[in-house]
Amino acid sequence: MSQRGVRLPFDLLGVPVWLDNSFLLVLPLFAYLIGSQITGYAVLLSQVGVPIDPSGLEQGYTPWLLGLAAALGLFASVLVHELGHAVTARLYGVRTREIRLWFLGGVAQFEEMPRGRGAEAVVAVVGPVTSFVIGFLLWWSLPLARDNDGVLLVLSYLAITNALLALFNLLPALPLDGGRVLRGLLELFLPHLTATRIAVGVSGAVAVLLGLYGFFAMNFLLVIMAFFIYNAGRAEGQAAVLHGAFEGKRVADIMTTDPITVDPGMPLEQFVRLASFRPHLGYPVLDAGGLLVGFARIADARAALEGATGEALATVEQVIGPAETIAPDADAFEALRRLAEGDLGRLMVVDGDGRLLGVVGKRDLLALLRDPSEPAAGEEAGLP
């Protein structure tokens, strides 16, 4: 088991499926909760026209086996729900990176959301429709299991639960399907950022109401879901701001040109002093032909000087490490992702020959988010 969970040994419709660690922990809990309430479920189902005799379902391991079957069926239904999203997104040319099952259900991670008018609404609504279809088919199949109370109970439980999950997912709250449908419909008339802000506002209201209901009803799973919806909705709003700021921008548009560079033969003592008036984590290293050979950190240089012995002249060449590079025509979103995953906090922009064109750092990306009408850090409005 890795930190990410367990990946199924096969893909479904070309999509990798991961079982999150939280899913592996919550599955037996769900099985226990369902198995411990077999009699109650039987009584409730009898009241909605599915007569089940619970007396034969309470013996030995039967309740726990039925609970496990119902829990597995529930998550299998969620998986089919997410596959519905993935297949529909593929029709719009969008690839699904993975489907992940976790303790709150499942999520399909797309490379990007479909950007056509109303496309997000179509991809989102397919999920609840899929759950409704699963519920209908299971309910339609109940007469086939009328002679087996255990099978009848599991099928009817899954039929009703799928219908309820479909209704819950249609709540107009991001990141639920209903919230995405709402935003997709708003985008028919409004810009993406405006539609997202409205959807986020509605999501916050739904999350508060859901949380209050869960608290007074002592249903703490709903309270957890409410917190998740509220925070995820805010994250959607922040992502929309980033998308608006970065859309159409390339690395060449935002990089800092003419960065300070050093050569491999520079003495380490001189290199360390460079940080006194040009304070940076480190500097790109260029060879005599102007090609990027790596990145030298100030901290590594200081450590090398402290451990130096004898009269050998220590140079930058001794502390050169790998540089994190990116092409000038790469998307600004790609630069953001690479910076988040990297260790240097900056990317060296190089051409096809390996020549350094500039550097992209976090400040360059943050500058895109600053309102041009506001003064930058260190500036005061009204002063030249």
What does this structure look like?
With 384 residues, this protein is α+β, with helices and mostly antiparallel strands. The chain folds into 3 domains: 1-170, no CATH class; 178-247, no CATH class; 251-369, CBS-domain (Roll), CATH 3.10.580. It contains 13 helices and 11 strands. The longest helix has 30 residues, at 62-91. The model is unreliable at 371-384 (pLDDT under 50).
- Number of distinct helices: 13
Query: What is the CA-based Rg, rounded?
Result: 28 Å
Helix content range of the residues, please?
A: 40-55%
Number of strands: 11
The total number of structural domains is: 3
Oligomer: single chain
Mean pLDDT: 82
Assess the beta-strand content as a share of residues: 5-15%
Q: How would you classify the helix and strand content by structural class?
A: alpha+beta
Low-confidence stretches: 371-384
C-alpha end-to-end distance: 59 Å
The dominant shape is elongated
How does the major sheet shape up?
A: 4 strands, mixed
Strand order of the largest sheet: 1-2-3-4
- Element-by-element helix/strand order: EEHHHEEHHHHHHEHEEHEEHEEH
Helices and strands, with pairings:
Layout (H helix, E strand, L loop, with lengths): L5 E2 L9 E3 L1 H15 L2 H10 L14 H30 L4 E7 L2 E6 L8 H22 L8 H21 L7 H10 L5 H25 L3 H27 L4 H4 L1 E2 L10 H10 L4 E5 L5 E6 H9 L13 E2 L3 E2 L5 H10 L4 E5 L5 E6 H8 L15
Parallel strand pairs: 2-3, 9-10
Antiparallel strand pairs: 1-2, 3-4, 5-11, 6-7, 7-8, 10-11
Helix pairs in contact: 1-3, 3-4, 3-5, 4-5, 4-6, 6-7, 7-8, 10-11
